[in-house]
Structures are given as structure tokens and as C-alpha cells.
Design brief:
Elements (H helix, E strand, L loop, with lengths): L7 H8 L7 E7 L5 E7 L12 E5 L2 H5 L6 E9 L6 E7 L1 H5 L5 E5 L5 E4 L7 E2 L7 E7 L10 E2 L6 H8 L5 E6 L13 E9 L18 E4 L10 E7 L7 H8 L15 E23 L2 E20 H8 L2 H18 L14 H10 L4 E3 L18
Parallel strand pairs: 4-10
Antiparallel strand pairs: 1-2, 3-4, 3-6, 4-5, 5-9, 6-7, 8-9, 9-17, 11-12, 11-14, 12-13, 13-16, 14-15, 15-16
Length: about 400
């Protein structure tokens, strides 16, 4: 083939409309030093707006204001009432960040380019009923737009059904947004990204150990997690079938999986899925060897080594926590109050317009709400800590 007659950039533009992912032209080198033009799969572009879903956690308000190197990461989600359409907002992180790290205080960015704190206590957080490393706190919306945040809908969560029908496999690209404590931002939160691939899928009979908690049903991801990233949301981008049929029709017709109307369309046609929540690195315990006079002698001590793998708790474990009886009861109670005060505000999702890049960004801006510490009426304080450590 005449190289001058074959334009790889034009070819990349042409095939991008025929593949479920984007490609770009690149040059690779052969073993003899020759150059070969190829089309290479592009890494996903992370939407700037996703960073607004992430917050930092600290032991105290003073620790947050002093940007101390302690605590972890978390993110906001919301549950939509099936009867009133009302949105209920929650903060999500790891159980070990709250229970063992004693870091319940949220630090969130504000519109003046600074940050503010939401001074929760460890008693405001509820844990997964069966020992998964998940903690959730209800966040009251008081209607003031001082705080910048994006709450992600639970319809973004990857479920077992999505894994089977939408095709999430070993080797899929994933990324997380969290707190690199050595460069996290002193005047405002500045989450950083880490990326990798799925190395092992979760299985209920093959639990994975974590440093600060019970063995977990979890993904194993080739992505280095460091102190401070615990609680980070972990994402997978699924490319929309842009070439002939819309994504919603494609998923529901070909894969027989329903795509909710509030699933958000991201830049360049990608759908963002929340794979789960980072719970730290997979620990490896190595023998400590004493070397004396040229001899190696095994000691009774162990040293923790970093495996290079992150343990990611599946998103359905977050959903199971949100479905705890006290959370459900509180949402039902507030629904009844809303119906009494304002009338039932039902929304017909069949009339919802298709999301474009512009409408997606506008929807995210509209979801920015003022958030404050909740005073949940039905939460039992003792219930926070009465779960068995490992079930």
C-alpha cells in the first residue's frame, strides 16, 4: 500500500463512528527499529464535572481547615423517590474511614473558590448491614447554593445485571477520583485521578482481604491506592453506540437491559458507570529477614508490601446500604410530608428529552445544592455500631 495514499488520521475519524470506543493514530516501533502506523484505542477523558461529586474527610473541623494529612475520600449520591420524584442526598465512603480512621467531617468546595466543612459525627454514618466496607450518611438539602457538588444518581451503579448484559470484563479501563494527601489542595479540594484495569471480578465465595477491615466481596483492580484514596468513587466508561442507533435503544433492544432516563450522557457519548468504591490496596505480608555475617535468618516479624492492586467494593453494596430499613423509612416519611405540603409531584420519565453534552452539563449544574448536616429523626444511634464486624 502506498503510504502517501493512506491517511491514518482520516481513517481514525472514519472508524470512530463504527466502534464502541474511540481510536487515534499512533506510531509503534518494530524489533528492528522500523516504524509502523497503527490505530490505538484512546483512554477515556474524565469529565471535569465528576470532580464535584468528590469530597474529603477529616477527623475534625480543625484538621480539615488545616489540610492535615489524615482521613480519606467520599462522594455524593442521590436516591429518587419512586412516588414523589423527590431526590434524597447521601454521602458515601468506606466504613473503615469512619470507624477506624475516625474521620466523619466532610470538606467540600464552595463557589468563592474556597472550601467549607459539614461537621458530621461518627454517629451520623450508617454501615452496610452485612460487613461490606461501606458507610453512608444522609445529607439535608437546605436550598442554599453555597457549596459546589454533584450528586450522582444510583442508576449509575454497576449491578450484577449490568456486568452480565452490558459487557464488563477483565481488562476494562477504570479510574478513580480521590485525595492524594501530599497534593490534595490546601485552599480548596483538588481531587486527582488514578487509572487501571479490572484484574479480577467480585465473587461472594472468593473474598479479598483489606488492611483495615473484614475480607470483602470486591473487584481487584490494577490501580495503586494510597493512604487518603480510601472511599474514592471508581468509574467505568461505557461507550454509547453512536453509529446507527441511540444508546438507550441499543442497550434495551440488543442486551435487554433497561436504561433509566436519568442516566447521564457524558462528553463524547460515553456513559459513566460507578463501578464501586476504593477500599485500599491489596496487602501482601512479607517475612522480615535479618542478615548477619552473610547469613539470612528469618525473624518472627512481617512487613506490609504494596501489591499494586486496589480493592474496589462493588456499587451494589452501596445500594444495599442505602436500602437499610431506617433510610427507607425516613424517605417514606419525608415523601408523605412532601405530599401533604406540596401535593404529589410526579414526573413522567417517558417525556424526558434525550441528553446531549450541553444538557448533561446543565443538569449537573442544576444538581449543585447547598448541603448541611442532617438531623435524621428515625436514625437509631446505637444501630450505627451494632452490626457484627464480619458476617
Amino acid at each position: 500500500m502506498n503510504r502517501q495514499q493512506y491517511n491514518f488520521r482520516e481513517q481514525a475519524t472514519a472508524v470512530n463512528g463504527e466502534l464502541p470506543y474511540s481510536v487515534e493514530p499512533a506510531v509503534v516501533y518494530t524489533g528492528t527499529g522500523g516504524q509502523v502506523a497503527v490505530l490505538r484505542k484512546k483512554m477515556p477523558i474524565i469529565a471535569e464535572t465528576l470532580k464535584a461529586a468528590v469530597f474529603y474527610l477529616y477527623p475534625t473541623e480543625d484538621a480539615a481547615r488545616n489540610s492535615e494529612r489524615s482521613g480519606g475520600t467520599g462522594f455524593f449520591v442521590f436516591v429518587t423517590s419512586p412516588t414523589t420524584g423527590k431526590k434524597y442526598y447521601y454521602a458515601v465512603t468506606n466504613r473503615h474511614v469512619i470507624e477506624k480512621g475516625l474521620s466523619p467531617v466532610i470538606r467540600v468546595n464552595t463557589f468563592d473558590g474556597k472550601f467549607d466543612t459539614i461537621n458530621l459525627t461518627i454517629y451520623d454514618w450508617q454501615y452496610h448491614p452485612n460487613g461490606a466496607d461501606v458507610a453512608v450518611a444522609f445529607i439535608e438539602d437546605d436550598g442554599d447554593n453555597q457549596h459546589i457538588y454533584v450528586a450522582m444518581p444510583t442508576t449509575w451503579f454497576v449491578t450484577q445485571e449490568v456486568i452480565q448484559t452490558a459487557g464488563i470484563y477483565l481488562g476494562n479501563d477504570v479510574y478513580m477520583l480521590g485525595r492524594f494527601i501530599h497534593h490534595a489542595g490546601r485552599t480548596f479540594n483538588m481531587p486527582s485521578a488514578r487509572s487501571g484495569i479490572i484484574s479480577a471480578m467480585p465473587h461472594p465465595s472468593e473474598l479479598i482481604p483489606i488492611k483495615d477491615g473484614c475480607p470483602q466481596e470486591a473487584y481487584l483492580v490494577e490501580m495503586r491506592s494510597l493512604s487518603g484514596y480510601s472511599g474514592s468513587p471508581t468509574f467505568h466508561n461505557l461507550k454509547a453506540a453512536e453509529f446507527i442507533i441511540p444508546f438507550k435503544f441499543f442497550m434495551e433492544t440488543i442486551y435487554n437491559i433497561e436504561v433509566p432516563e436519568d442516566t447521564r450522557l457524558r462528553d463524547e457519548g460515553d456513559y459513566v458507570w460507578v463501578l464501586g468504591i476504593d477500599a485500599g490496596n491489596f496487602p501482601i505480608y512479607e517475612d522480615v529477614i535479618e542478615i548477619a555475617n552473610g547469613n539470612e535468618n528469618k525473624t518472627p516479624y512481617k512487613a506490609i508490601n504494596h501489591s499494586g492492586f486496589s480493592v474496589v467494593i462493588p456499587a451494589w453494596k452501596i445500594q444495599e446500604t442505602l436500602d437499610r430499613e431506617n433510610f427507607v423509612t425516613e424517605r417514606e416519611k419525608k415523601d408523605k410530608q412532601s405530599e401533604h405540603m406540596e401535593g404529589v409531584a410526579r414526573t413522567d420519565s417517558s417525556d424526558a428529552p434525550a441528553f446531549t453534552r450541553h444538557s448533561f452539563e446543565e443538569a449537573l449544574k442544576q444538581s449543585s445544592q447547598r448541603i448541611a448536616s442532617s438531623e435524621t429523626e428515625t436514625t437509631e444511634t446505637s444501630d450505627t455500631h451494632r452490626d457484627d464486624d464480619c458476617i
